[in-house]
User: Which sequence fits this backbone?
C-alpha cells in the first residue's frame, strides 16, 4: 500500500503533474498520509527519486483533515453497504449452519 503513489506515477506523468492529482494518489495510501502528517517526507527520499518522478514534483502532502474525511467517508459507505447486504431479503436464513 505504501507504493501506491509510485505505482500511479506513470499515469500522473501521462495526464500532467497537477497538484490535485498528486495529492489524490497520496491519499490512496494510508502509509504516505501518516508519514506526511508526521513530517516524514517519503516521496522526496533518495529511493523515491530512483523509482518515480514524484520525488521531483513540487506538491504538498494532503492535509490530515482531508485524509480523515476520505477514510471516514469510505468506512461509512462500506458500513452501509455491509448492513444492506446483511438485511437483504434474498439472503438464505439457515441459522448459520450449512
Assistant:
Amino acid at each position: 500500500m505504501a507504493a501506491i503513489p509510485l505505482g500511479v506515477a506513470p499515469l500522473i506523468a501521462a495526464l500532467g503533474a497537477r497538484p490535485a492529482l498528486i495529492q489524490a494518489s497520496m491519499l490512496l495510501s494510508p502509509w504516505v498520509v501518516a508519514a506526511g502528517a508526521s513530517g516524514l517526507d517519503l516521496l522526496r527520499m533518495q529511493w523515491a527519486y530512483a523509482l518515480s518522478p514524484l520525488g521531483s514534483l513540487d506538491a504538498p502532502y494532503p492535509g490530515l483533515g482531508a485524509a480523515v474525511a476520505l477514510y471516514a467517508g469510505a468506512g461509512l459507505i462500506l458500513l452501509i453497504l455491509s448492513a444492506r447486504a446483511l438485511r437483504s431479503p434474498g439472503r438464505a436464513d439457515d441459522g448459520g449452519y450449512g
In short: The mean pLDDT is 75.
